[in-house]
Amino acid sequence: MFRIRNALTNFMRGRYAQYDGLNKFLLVIWIICAFLNIFLRTWILSALGLVFAILPLLRMLSKNLPARAKEEMKYQQIKKKISDKIKLLKNRWRDRKTHVYISCPFCKNTLRLPKKKGKHGVICPCCKKDFNVKI
Ligand SMILES: [Zn+2]
Question: How far is the CA of 73 from the centre of ligand 1 (A)?
Answer without folding.
Answer: 27
